[in-house]
Write a structure and sequence with these properties.
Blueprint lengths: L2 E6 L6 H9 L5 E7 L2 E9 L7 H8 L6 E2 L19 H18 L7 E5 L2 H11 L5 E5 L3 H15 L3 E4 L10 E4 L9 E9 L6 E9 L16 H10 L13 E4 L3 E2 L1 H9 L2
Parallel strand pairs: 1-3, 1-4, 5-6, 5-8, 6-7, 8-9, 9-10
Antiparallel strand pairs: 2-3, 10-11, 11-12
Length: 273
């Protein structure tokens, strides 16, 4: 279950009461909350003289202690038994969705697109059917060659698409559109005409889209507070609280190395390559 931590600022109190609370500090409180059909624990605790009782917070977090959504400026110390939640799956899914959305909206001539997909077997099987008709050639760069051989052969035969399967990272270098939701493979250099959807590395040549932003849906807004990073908040509810409907959200911004643009603007860039 997801645990959401919230720090409460100390209210103004008399000197005597503050002295009392220095000895008998208020304990953290954990409340089970439900947002539509999604349960989570909201943990709140008063900060006393710039300090938080991390051990008590860990105890009340129970099995959630290793996956706590924290405010942007709070990082639990080592040895506290708590670990700040770090997104992994949700950013990849939103970046994939942005890439596919922009590519389909571009309606570019397939003859102008040479597409590379750098991903594991599961991601390739999800992505490939969505972009089959968008490129003159599709290169699959993956370490999961055996798991993908039959799938790519069958897909190429049924669709007539030109599909190449390889584990050579240099195969992406001559492509002008690259989708690498989990990051670019080591050894890939790219070219300055490529549009690249990939997180992580920033030394890759071309126009690089690092991430996608999505808006918090209406049903989830009552649980959100500005103290949380919006991307981490959405990812926590998707990855830990199992709110899988969040995968259907449409990206509203493409975040690049030097700024952001809308998916519609990105589609126009793809159309011009």
């Amino acid at each position: 279950m997801l645990a959401v931590f919230e720090r409460i600022e100390s209210p103004k109190r008399s000197w005597l009461k503050n002295k009392f609370l220095d000895i008998f500090a208020p304990s953290p409180e954990g409340v089970l909350e439900l947002i539509e059909d999604v349960p989570y624990i909201r943990i709140s605790c008063e900060e006393r003289r710039g300090k938080l009782p991390w051990n008590r917070i860990s105890e009340i977090s129970l099995d959630c202690a290793r996956r706590v959504l924290m405010p942007k400026d709070i990082f639990p110390p080592e040895g506290s038994g708590l670990k700040r939640f770090t997104p992994s799956e949700f950013p990849k899914i939103t970046l994939e969705k942005l890439a596919v959305t922009a590519l389909l909206q571009a309606e570019a001539e397939p003859s102008t697109i040479k597409l590379a997909i750098c991903a594991n077997a599961a991601d390739v099987k999800r992505l490939l059917p969505l972009v089959l008709n968008c490129a003159s050639e599709i290169r699959i760069i993956s370490k999961d060659i055996e798991a993908l051989e039959l799938f790519t052969e069958d897909t190429a035969e049924l669709s007539g698409a030109a599909i190449m399967l390889t584990d050579d990272p240099k195969a992406v270098d001559s492509c002008n559109l690259i989708i690498a939701p989990s990051g670019l493979p080591e050894g890939a250099k790219g070219n300055n005409k490529a549009i690249v959807f990939a997180s992580g590395r920033r030394d890759f040549e071309g126009i690089q889209i690092l991430s996608a932003e999505v808006e918090i849906p209406e049903w989830l807004r009552p649980a959100y507070k500005p103290i949380y990073d919006r991307g981490e908040f959405l990812a926590a509810f998707y990855e830990i609280a199992n709110a899988r409907r969040l995968a259907d959200l449409a990206p509203t911004q493409a975040i690049g190395r030097s700024g952001s643009i809308t998916p519609e603007q990105l589609a126009q860039v793809i159309k011009s390559i």
